[in-house]
Amino acid sequence: MTAARAPLLESLPRGLHEALPPALFVALVCALGPWWSVYELDADEGFNLMKALLVADGHSLYRSVWSDQPPLLTWLLAGLFAMTGPSVAGARALVLGFAALALWSLFRLVRRQEGNESAWLAVAVLGGSALFQRLGVSVMVGLPALALALAALDQAAGGRRQVWVSGALMALSLNAKLFTATAIPAVLLAVALASSEGGRRRIAARCAEWLAAFAAVSAAVLAIARPDLMAQLVAPHTAPGLEGSFRYEVGWNRLAALLVQEPAVLLLAAAGLVLAPPWREARRWVPLLWLAVAAAAFWRHAPVWYHHALLFTLPLAWVAGPLGRAVAGPSRPRRVLALAALLLAAPLAIQAGERAWHDFRAPVAAEDTAALEEIGRFGAGARWIVTDRPMDAVRAGILVPPPLAVMSLKREKAGHLPPAAMTAALEQYAPALVSSRRLRLPREVRRVLDESYDVVVDRDDHTLYRRKPGAPGPQAPGR
Question: Whole-model pTM?
Answer without folding.
Answer: 0.92
